[in-house]
What we know:
This protein is 36% helix and 22% strand. The protein is α/β, with parallel strands linked by helices. It has a four-stranded mixed beta sheet with strand order 3-6-8-7, with helices on one face. Helix 1 (10-29) links the parallel strand 1 (3-7) and strand 2 (38-42). The longest helix is centred in the N-terminal third of the chain and has 20 residues, at 10-29. The protein is globular, with a radius of gyration of 18 Å. 13% of the residues are buried. The model is unreliable at 110-119 (pLDDT under 50).
Amino acid sequence: MNVVSTDNDPAVLSLLGENLERNTINDVLATRPTEQQVHVHSLDWVDVANDPDAERSHPVFLELESLGGADVILLSDVVYGATQPAWDALLVLVNKFCAQQQRLRVGPVNCDENNATKLKKGAQYERPANPVVLLGYTQRRRDMSPQDEARFFAMVRGAGMEAVLIPLTSIPNCEKYMLTSLFELRLIEA
Length: 190
C-alpha cells in the first residue's frame, strides 16, 4: 500500500517526516521488508482548489497520478471551527481527487514489475471508479455549534456527495463510546 499524506502546517509535516524516518528504521531493523511507501506533501486546500492547473502541476496530484490515483481518501479531524473558511475548498479537492481517479480508471490493471501499485505479481484487479472517502469527525461543542455542523454536512450535499454514518458495529476494534464518528462520503450519481 502506498500512502500520500498531506497537511498545510510545517510543524505537522516535520513531525510526520520524523515519525516516518523512525518507523522506516524500525522496519529495517526488524528485517520486515516493505514495499509500501509513504509520501508527504504540503497541501493548502484553498490554494490548490482555486488553481486550475493543480491537477497537472501540484505535487500531490502528480504523486497520485504516478500511483494510479487514490483508492482511499481519509479525512481525519479536518472539520472544526478554524477550518470553516476552507470547507468549500476541501470539498472541491475531494471532488478533484475523485475526478482524477475516474480519469485514470481504464479497466483492469495488470500487476507487473512496472506498476507503481504492487499486488500479487501477475494478478489483475479492478480499480474502483471512485475512491472510498472516509471522514473522521469529532464533535466539538466549544468550537462549533450544531448549526455549524449542519452547514458543513449541507455543503457536503451541495458538493454532490452524501455523508453516510458508518455504524460502530461495522468498525473493527471500535471502542464502545467513541468520540469520533466515521462517515463515508459517497458521490451522488446524477
